[in-house]
Amino acid sequence: MNDQPDSTGTSEAYGGGLAERLGGNAVVEHDTVRIYIEREAWFDTLRRARDEEGLTFFSWLAGIDWSKDVAVGDTVEEPDELDERFEVMCRLSSIENADAAQFITVVPKDDAVIDSITELFGGAEWHERETHDMFGIDFAGNPNLSPIYLPEGFIGHPLLKSYPLLAREVKPWPGDVDVEDMPEEES
């Protein structure tokens, strides 16, 4: 554990101090601390967060596809402004106080590999399998990246924005409603 105060102060102070001690950049919005770190520092930073900062509770790990190519749904408003990439993020927290942070790193689409954190947090195996299944991101060192949702031999990764949802092409999304004008009242 470190000798720094816990988060009884402000989230901004906690996030800034955490980023300074671990390396990375802190962003605090709505009392949520996000620490952006380099992919090469992923494993070591999370190990240090656990061992030095007391963030021993692993909550979740997930991926995001930042893509200009959107097969279903709204298109990107300013595609020239978007840097296509994956982001992998996880949330760690303390079991002794309210300290918590999300750790986020960029994974290039043309080299979608990041170190597994299953050695640090056994519960991360399921989350890494899910992220691999849905986005195609490889977790180097994960002992079991077999499909968790998709059947063996399934082609594609359904949470990629470029993945076509054929069911929505055959049958419109039930939330899409064509609203007609109200009839005018006769006087």
Description:
With 187 residues, the protein is of the alpha/beta class. It has a single domain (11-170), classed as NADH:ubiquinone oxidoreductase Nqo5 subunit (Beta Polymerase, domain 2), CATH 3.30.460. It contains four helices and seven strands, in the order H-E-E-H-E-E-E-E-H-E-H. Strands 1-2-5-4-3 form a five-stranded mixed β-sheet, with helices on one face. Strand 6, helix 3 (124-135) and strand 7 form a beta-alpha-beta unit. The radius of gyration is 21 Å and the shape is globular. The protein starts with 10 loop residues before the first helix and ends in a 17-residue tail after the last helix. The model is unreliable at 1-8 (pLDDT under 50).
Beta strand % = 15-25%
Helix percentage range = 10-25%
The CATH level-2 architecture is identified as 2-Layer Sandwich
| DSSP strand tally | 7
Supply the CATH superfamily name. NADH:ubiquinone oxidoreductase Nqo5 subunit
SSE class: alpha/beta
Strand order of the largest sheet: 1-2-5-4-3
Major beta sheet summary: 5 strands, mixed
Order of secondary-structure elements: HEEHEEEEHEH
CATH class: Alpha Beta
Are there runs of 5+ residues with pLDDT below 50, and where?
1-8
Q: How many distinct helices?
A: 4
If you compute it from the alpha carbons, what radius of gyration comes out, rounded to the nearest whole angstrom?
21 Å
Q: Terminal Cα separation, in Å?
A: 77 Å
Average pLDDT, to the nearest integer?
87
Q: How many domains make up the 3D coordinates?
A: 1
CATH fold label:
Beta Polymerase, domain 2
- Overall morphology: globular
